[in-house]
Amino acid sequence: MALALEPFAVSPQEAGFTLAKVLRSRLGGPSWGEVRGLIAARRVQIGDAVCSDEARRLKEGELVTLFEHPKPLPRAAHPERLVVRHLDEHVVVVEKPSGVNTVRHPAELEWSEERRELDPTLEDLTQWAVAHQQGRPARELPRLRIVHRLDKETSGLVVFARSVLAERDLGLQFRKHTVVRRYLTVVPGTLTARTIRSNLVEDRGDGRRGSTKLPDVGKEAVTHVSVEERLNGYTLLSCRLETGRTHQIRIHLSEAGHPVCGDKVYVKRFNAPVFYDRSAAPRLALHATELGFTHPATGAALHWSMPLPSDLVRFVERLRG
Predict the structure, then answer these.
(1) Claim to verify: residue 201 and residue 266 sit in the same structural domain
(2) Which one in 73, 136, 261, 311 has a CA-CA gap of 20 to 30 Å to 190?
(3) Cβ distance 124 to 101 under 8 Å?
(4) Which helix (H) or strand (E) holds 19?
(5) Degrees, nearest 5: CA angle 186-191-196
(6) Is the residue at 101 inside a domain?
(7) Side-chain-side CA neighbours of residue 12 (13 Å)
(8) Any idea which residues carry the catalytic annotation?
């Protein structure tokens, strides 16, 4: 039996069932072993992430794709290639590569170390890299504590807390919006410097996050936009976050009529036609280039910057030409 399948959205009747069960049904009843083999071989993707958990419960509307060949791990998804910019007993700052999830899906939290190695997150890679630096088994290290995250396709600087003190203090700094976070991004057209301010909601009316005009609804989001460089039909922007809402930059720029190059989600404004992306961006053109905060234990002001990675450098150079 040829195990081939067109991408499909999870139906209301399939929601709540495991990935293995739904795939087996969609494929016409192959053996459970064959279905598990497909999933273990990294041939199944949910949304934009490969899923190797056969017991993952599916949600209505999720897009499931079955690939003809296994998807390789991202080249950067190896601890020896991860760049650690700062490490002490309270915090660790790393350079996140594109193509790696920051944290693991809740359904995968109980995975063994061996299984995590097949599909590592940035959290996994960071813990393994710290273990390698310190010459200790990863299981003996204090667990990493999440204080912020980047989207899978976004690259850039990320901090993890390594102590309860750091988790609490950094969490407070993020809530007070005192953490320095600046991003570089490329958008089509000509955009001028501005501050974009709106209230964001999880569902703007079509199932996607977006802004609302309803009073006292949603969470305030503020993005300060400046121009780094005018390109040939595009603009390289610098975006400083005053707040840090989910997908804030992508939503604000899309609603301004200039969706981030390579974005496959926010290419459609509410009640507006889909924007056709002609940039041929290698991935989401969004990079967390600057990160700064006060050390939770010493009070020292810490700051790092990270230039555009090579894939986006080549993209920008092509647009210059």
Answers:
(1) yes
(2) 311
(3) no
(4) helix 19-26
(5) 95
(6) yes
(7) 0
(8) 151
The residues, ordered by sequence, that sit 6+ positions from 31 with a Cβ below 8 Å of its Cβ are: none
Cβ 99 vs Cβ 77: under 8 Å = yes
> From CA 258, how far away is CA 224, in angstroms rounded?
15
> Would residue 253 count as lying in a domain?
yes
248 contacts 200 by C-beta, under 8 angstroms = yes
CA distance 321 to 319: 5
When divided into structural domains, the chain yields a total of 3
CA distance 156 to 249: 14
pLDDT per position as a tens digit, 226-282? 999 999 999 999 999 999 999 999 999 999 999 999 998 898 777 777 888 999 999
State the Cα–Cα distance between residues 303 and 292, nearest whole angstrom: 4
The first and second tokens of residue 213, run together, are 């005009």
Residue 75 has pLDDT above 60, yes or no: no
Residue 218 lies in a domain: yes
Tally the residues of the chain.
321
Task: For residue 217, give its domain range.
Answer: 181-286
Q: What is the pLDDT of residue 261?
A: 97
Quick one: which H or E segment has residue 170?
helix 164-175
Number of H helices, E strands in the chain: 7, 15
| Amino acid symbol at 256 | A
Place of tokens 């109980």: 110
Distance CA 158, CA 145 (A): 12
The answer to whether 16 and 58 have CB atoms below 8 angstroms apart is yes
Measured CA angle at 123 (ends 100, 96), to 5 deg:
45
What local confidence, expressed as pLDDT, does residue 273 receive? 77
The DSSP H or E segment spanning 158 is: strand 155-161
The answer to whether the beta carbons of residues 7 and 48 sit under 8 Å apart is: no
Same domain, 101 and 114: yes
